[in-house]
Amino acid sequence: MKIALTGATGFIGRHLLAELVKRGHEISVLVRNPAKVEESHWPSIRTIHFDLDAPNNAATEVGKHDALIHLAWPRLPNYKELFHFEENLPASYRFLKASIEAGVPQVLVAGTCFEYGMQDGCLGENLAARPANSYSLAKDTLRKFLERLREKQPFTLQWIRLFYMYGPGQNSNSLLAQLDRAIDNGDAIFNMSGGEQLRDYLPVEQVASGLARVAEHSKCDGITNVCSGVPISVRKLVEQQIQSRNARIELNFGYYPYPSHEPMAFWGDARKFQAIISSTS
Question: Which of 7, 54, 61, 86 has its CA 20 to 30 A from that of 34?
Answer without folding.
Answer: 86
